[in-house]
Design brief:
The radius of gyration is 21 Å and the shape is globular. Helix 9 (264-279) links the parallel strand 9 and strand 10. It has helices at residues 2-6, 9-17, 23-41, 49-65, 106-113, 156-164, 180-186, 225-236, 264-279, 293-309, 326-346, 393-397, 427-441, 448-453; strands at residues 44-47, 76-80, 117-122, 134-135, 139-140, 169-174, 189-192, 217-222, 250-253, 283-286, 351-355, 374-376, 382-384, 402-409, 415-421. With 460 residues, it is α/β, with parallel strands linked by helices. 36% of the residues lie in helices and 15% in strands.
Length: 460
């Protein structure tokens, strides 16, 4: 069963459909793997095992009768701990949100209707508001590639669960890189879709808050691009686009931004990946930021803080309210202008490649505040903790679909990923381009710590 858990969701579904493995057997194998490794990684923080076991038995019985099956029939899945599961309310890393009556979030209902076995929640920072996944309720989640490092946030437990083989598909969300940063840190794939493509209904929020969040998107995390295409089809009825030939692609390469930091090791790996693409016939041209970078970040932060203020209680809202009203109107106008500029900048290209973050996954650091923390790059340079947001902000401000794939490892064995930023609304095309590039990059690798742990006990 270890072999099937190392495979992607598409292969697991094929094994289920041909009855090489039953849904009950696959679910038990996932439970066994989580029982072995989750005490060290702490990715899955709440389980709904009883419901999943009953659903697996129902899938097996239906398959034995020859009844029609959903496209995810019998596939075990976890979801980020911001999505309510029936009988298992999401905590968003906060005890105060537990104890509620909960029905399936729309995204959860979609995958369950397609036959998935939704069996647990994956960890997040408190309030989903950090680039590490830790909280007082469930503790610290660790990166399967190196337990001393973070898997990222806020979908850190989600990314760690996929990398560790606890699930082949995950549903996360992204308002500040919360899909892309953990995917990059953990060496998996993700897709940030266009805003509004996937329903937000059922995301844990303060009582009575029903509006969709501006800037926030729900998106798939997986081990392969084809898996993300499959999950996007389930979540949003978006059909896959055929994979283009490499020789037909023209890509922009955004690596040079004077106001953004970038670790030399990450630059080197992405440049080597770009060279490999050129060797396969892809046209790759260096490009500058499609919009003024600092103005883009300022606009993003104004819009983000205004959005967050709507979901806070009155006592915590005063500072954030400074970014509402006239400030938000001005930022909304600036965003509209930037969207127009981006459309012109993208015109010559099928997509633009860019780093996900300025550093790879860093060591756990829960001291002080995010504003007071610092990170160290491989050359000894120090950058502010909050600079992790720089490279991911463009897609949020300008509402661009982005697919992330791993493209290499640093000398100390940590994953490096690249953003494939697509044209506005072109989610299926961006995924198709990513599928072509994934073949050059080599795809998902299982963390070597997991491989070693099969032969010897694993210690934290």
């Amino acid at each position: 069963m270890d072999d099937i858990l190392e495979s992607d969701a598409t292969e697991q579904i094929a094994a289920l459909a041909t009855r090489r493995v039953s849904a009950s057997e696959l679910l038990q194998a996932v439970f066994d793997r989580a029982d072995q490794f989750n005490p060290f990684i702490n990715a899955v923080v709440a389980r709904d095992a009883k419901r999943a076991i009953a659903d697996a038995a129902a899938v097996d019985a239906a398959r034995a009768r020859g009844d029609a099956q959903g496209v995810l029939a019998g596939l075990p899945m976890t979801v980020k701990d911001i999505f309510d599961i029936e009988g298992l309310p999401a905590s968003d890393g906060m005890k105060s949100l537990l104890g509620r009556d909960a029905t399936d979030a729309d995204a959860v209902a979609r995958v369950r209707a397609a036959g998935a076995l939704v069996w647990g929640h994956t960890n997040v920072p408190a309030g989903s508001s950090d680039y590490q996944a830790y909280n007082a309720l469930y503790g610290v989640t660790r990166n399967p590639w190196n337990l001393a490092r973070t898997p990222g946030g806020s979908s850190g437990g989600s990314a760690a669960a996929v990398a560790a083989g606890f699930t082949a598909l995950e549903i996360g969300a992204d308002i500040g890189g919360s899909l892309r940063i953990p995917a990059g840190y953990c060496g998996i794939a993700c897709h940030r879709p266009s805003w509004g493509l996937i329903s937000q209904r059922g995301i844990a929020a303060p009582p009575g808050y029903l509006a969709d969040y501006d800037l926030l998107v729900v998106g798939p995390m997986a081990r392969s691009v084809r898996d993300r295409q499959l999950l996007l089809m389930v979540l949003a009825d978006v059909a896959p686009t055929p994979t283009p030939g490499l020789g037909a692609l023209r890509l922009g390469l955004w690596l040079d931004e004077p106001t953004f930091s970038l670790d030399p090791e990450i630059r080197d790996i992405i440049e080597r990946f770009a060279s490999a693409l050129q060797g396969q016939g892809v046209a790759v041209d260096p490009v500058a930021s499609p919009v003024p970078a600092r103005a883009m970040l300022s606009t993003y932060m104004t819009l983000l803080l205004a959005t967050l203020s709507g979901a806070l209680g009155p006592a915590a809202r005063s500072v954030f309210d400074l970014f509402r009203g006239p400030a938000r109107l001005a930022a909304s106008e600036e965003r509209a202008r930037m969207k127009a500029e981006v459309a012109m900048a993208f015109a010559p290209y099928d997509a633009i490649l860019a780093p996900v973050t300025p550093t790879t996954a860093f060591g756990h650091d829960h001291t002080g505040t995010q504003a007071t923390r610092w990170l160290t790059m491989s050359d000894g340079g120090r950058i502010r903790y909050l600079e992790q947001v720089d490279w991911i902000a463009l897609a949020i401000v300008c509402d661009l679909p982005v697919t992330v794939i791993p493209v290499g490892l640093t000398p100390d064995g940590m994953p490096v990923a690249v953003q494939i930023i697509g044209l506005p609304g072109a989610d299926s095309a961006t995924l198709a381009i990513a599928s072509a590039l994934e073949a050059v990059a080599g795809g998902f690798q299982s963390p070597p710590t997991l491989v070693q742990a099969k032969a010897a006990p694993w210690s934290a």
